[in-house]
Amino acid sequence: MTLRVTDLAFGYTGKPVGSGVSFSLQPGGVLCLLGPNGSGKTTLFKTILGLLEPQAGRIEIDGADISHWSRAQIARRMGYVPQAQSSHFPFTVLETVLMGRTAHIGLFASPSHHDVAVADRALATLNIEHLRDVAYTEISGGERQLTLIARALAQEPAILVMDEPTASLDFGNQAMVLAKVRQLASQDMAVIFASHDPDHAFQCATDVALLYHGRLVQHGPAAQVITPGNLKQLYDVDVEIIELAGGRRAGQPLHVCVPAPRGQ
């Protein structure tokens, strides 16, 4: 499925956040959204997902305007991974992941054997099947984030929207999640994710969009968009971009960003 956003304005009642946002995302594409805190990334995602009404513009899936779609219709096509959440209810990890099946089975229906199998596959994909029967309230922040990703995968979406999916993960789990993003894209899923780390875009994105004060200031391949000048505009930090000797992905050189200490 193809996601197309055209001249989108977004925000809350009486409080505009962003405007003029346009991009498209094809099956197999991975778009990394970079931007400082307060730039509007989460609000943009909530609007794309139909949780907030667009203030202007269009959001289309395969050419169809989704503005009048129900939440269930959208959820069957787009999965959402929010930032890590706490919970006061002792649902097990499996029960939490099964909540991703709601769009397929209805709010008050009981999960079938098929639904449980789908949830178990999502847990196995993220290597957390050992947490299956553990209470969500008793696992670490990183494990909660992996559970939320599994919940989104249980929706069996064609498009996956991830709001800073690696924010609470240790280095090993960050690498694993980024590898899973590449794997999902190789299976023709379209993925859009927000990050504060430009290196994540270098590692798994086909395109990068820079969001600054609610507007896309650059959009295109990572090597063209992630530049010292653009990162200086976004984060007010001087950065050196280094090509890794011998490192390549999909035939292209790998790069890393190294912030320079202030005053040097």
Salient structural properties:
alpha/beta; single chain; 12 strands; 264 residues
Describe the structure.
This protein is an alpha/beta fold and about 260 residues long. It has ten helices and twelve strands. The chain has helices spanning about 40-50, 70-75, 95-100, 100-105, 115-125, 140-155, 170-185, 200-205, 220-225, 230-235, and strands at about 5-10, 15-25, 30-35, 55-60, 65, 80, 160-165, 190-195, 205-210, 215-220, 240-250, 250-260. Strands 6-7-8-3-9-10 form a six-stranded mixed sheet, sandwiched between helices. Helix 5 (about 115-125) crosses helix 6. The longest helix is centred in the C-terminal third of the chain and has 16 residues, at about 170-185. It is globular.
Fold blueprint:
Elements: E1 3-12, E2 15-25, E3 30-34, H1 41-48, E4 56-61, E5 64-65, H2 71-75, E6 78-81, H3 93-98, H4 102-105, H5 113-125, H6 141-154, E7 159-163, H7 171-186, E8 190-195, H8 198-204, E9 207-212, E10 215-220, H9 222-225, H10 228-235, E11 239-249, E12 252-259
Parallel strand pairs: 3-8, 3-9, 6-7, 7-8
Antiparallel strand pairs: 1-2, 1-4, 4-5, 9-10, 11-12
Helix pairs in contact: 5-6
